[in-house]
Task: inverse folding
């Protein structure tokens, strides 16, 4: 196991009716900005309920944060924070709203061009660059990204998607009430399951470093998702299934699975380009890329793929190659069982667009991906061809 440092200050309030706790966790004198997305939180009455809980506090609303939140929209919110002297933000939504809110908190006290904050990639923005933020909490409405308990965000700008990370971007608290997610469309739930699954395997199916605790945590999350996936899509008000999805999504990317182990975020990097170019849902892009990546990289990942086949899918018969082949097939079949198609052609992307995708990867500097840093543009092309 590698050396590591772990830090996570987010307080979690999990369960039915936990939304009431926001009154005690936001200062009574705060001027509060509520950020949200396309309007479902408003139409459902959730925003009105939150305003009631906030009582006499000054409250301003900022809606319209897109899926894959756009820099241009978030800058408008930064202007509101500054002009209205906002001193607390409450993000009400899924990963996109929470990611966008993280950028808002960082940019609101940054003296330079806020687009500078998109240039750090996976390097954490230091306290020399941003030393103060507007504190914020979250009310989660869509389980998927784990953004409610980590310090990372992904922001869309021009023709790309850019990771932003800073230890000041952890939410102060997050409310996770599974019942709030009951009204989600099935496709959003399925996308969230896939996103959680891929978050887990990108920290697990790499190469062994004898990190037994992290491996078992990852395997437990994957088995849970397989067990409850179809159920929670088909039975949205099955509280136990949905509660396990919500907590799995949070645990998959709150840092605990990935400490001390190599990580491979190739699937996400290629997936971001598919979303930016063709508007394919994030979860769908991951389901397209990951089985193909495993096929192309099976030799690099051989030991962990065999472990995955044994411990997650309980595959015991056949040769090693047959076990790996069946594990990849079961992975693809799991995504398909949720209603998520797993080939580029399923989304109307034609083979001639593969060159464009590879070109975009090159323009964004994504030329040495994977846990070993040797995944070139030619290998990305091979993955995309396999995914077609």
Result:
């Amino acid at each position: 196991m590698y050396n590591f440092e772990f830090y996570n200050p987010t307080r979690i309030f999990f369960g039915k009716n936990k939304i009431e706790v926001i009154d005690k966790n936001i200062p009574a004198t705060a001027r509060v900005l509520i950020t949200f997305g396309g309007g479902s939180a408003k139409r459902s009455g959730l925003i009105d309920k939150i305003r009631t809980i906030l009582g006499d506090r000054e409250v301003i609303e900022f809606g319209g944060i897109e899926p894959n939140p756009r820099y241009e929209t978030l800058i408008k919110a930064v202007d509101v924070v500054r002009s209205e002297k906002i001193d607390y933000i409450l993000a009400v939504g899924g990963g996109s709203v929470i990611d966008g809110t993280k950028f808002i908190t960082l940019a609101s006290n940054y003296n330079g061009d806020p687009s500078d904050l998109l240039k750090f990639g996976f390097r954490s923005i230091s306290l020399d660059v941003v030393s103060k933020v507007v504190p914020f909490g979250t009310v989660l409405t869509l389980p998927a990204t784990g953004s409610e308990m980590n310090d990372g965000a992904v922001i869309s700008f021009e023709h790309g998607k850019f990771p932003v990370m800073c230890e000041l971007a952890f939410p102060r608290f997050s409310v996770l009430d599974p019942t709030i997610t009951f009204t989600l469309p099935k496709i959003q739930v399925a996308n969230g399951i896939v996103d959680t699954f891929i978050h887990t395997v990108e920290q697990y199916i790499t190469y062994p470093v004898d990190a037994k605790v992290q491996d078992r945590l990852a395997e437990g999350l994957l088995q849970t998702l397989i067990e409850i996936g179809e159920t929670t899509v088909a039975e949205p008000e099955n509280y136990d299934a949905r509660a396990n999805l919500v907590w799995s999504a949070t645990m998959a990317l709150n840092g605990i699975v990935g400490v001390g182990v190599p990580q491979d975020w190739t699937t996400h990097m290629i997936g971001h380009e598919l979303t930016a170019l063709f508007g394919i849902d994030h979860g769908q892009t991951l389901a397209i890329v990951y089985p193909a990546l495993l096929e192309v990289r099976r030799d690099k990942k051989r030991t962990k793929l065999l472990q995955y086949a044994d411990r997650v899918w309980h595959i015991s018969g056949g040769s090693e190659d047959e076990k790996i082949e069946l594990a990849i097939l079961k992975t693809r079949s799991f995504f398909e069982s949720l209603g998520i198609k797993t080939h580029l052609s399923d989304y109307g992307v034609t083979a001639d667009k593969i060159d464009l995708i590879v070109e975009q990867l090159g323009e964004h500097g994504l030329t040495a991906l994977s846990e070993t840093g040797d995944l070139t543009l030619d290998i990305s092309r091979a993955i995309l061809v396999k995914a077609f």
The chain has 14 helices and eight strands. The beta strands are 11-14, 31-35, 58-62, 88-93, 136-140, 152-157, 160-165, 173-176. The first strand starts at residue 11 and ends at 14.
